[in-house]
Specification:
The protein is 22% helix and 39% strand. It is α+β, with helices and mostly antiparallel strands. It is globular, with a radius of gyration of 18 Å. It comes from Fervidibacillus albus.
Amino acid sequence: MKTMILNGVKGRTELKHEISKMDCYLLRNRLKHVMEVDPHANNDGKYFIRSVYFDNLDNKALNQKKEGLHNRDKYRVRLYDYHTSLLNLEKKSKRNNLTYKQKCRITVDEYERMRVGEIDWMENDERSLIRDLYIEMKMYGLKPMTVVDYVREVFIYPFGNVRVTFDSDIKTSFRNNDVLNFDLPMIETNPNVVVLEVKYDEYLPDVIKKLLQIGNRRNGTYSKYQISRMYG
């Protein structure tokens, strides 16, 4: 497969499936004999992720995702394991069947200014991603919309640069965007759903493909953001 580049970022294939907790248990026990646990994970092999997704009053990002548009962009601010000193602005772009992710570090103060609509400083910021988001916020009224929490477990495989992730315990803040408030009330979505994501570069090795074979998997165009918005 020919490598595709967007803004200096190499495209990757990203497949998503909705599976049960039992399927997750079975797959985990297969994969751990062949793949490595993410070295950045905690002692239990998992870590906590909190993101706030940007959207507008017309649900631009949500509707593009639901409609499965081949060309779309999604912005979010993300932190791991409650570390507010490691706050990233991320842009995920879909072009045909490939996914591209750009990110840059931001500060707590910068996010809070975005949250309350103080965005003039973004127009000439040295970070191109900040400038891109500024245009979206000015043209389409994008703003931080919904906080989504979940627990992630990651397995990696060097050949094909494969990452297999299991995302569970997905919670939503509805339309509260106070991502830095760790007392923020969060509502559980579907406790029985685990989102399986398979990401790779040019190819998915046959050994991993075989390990991932289970019945009754449902491929989907949904995301954690889409799941969270189903509840409000």
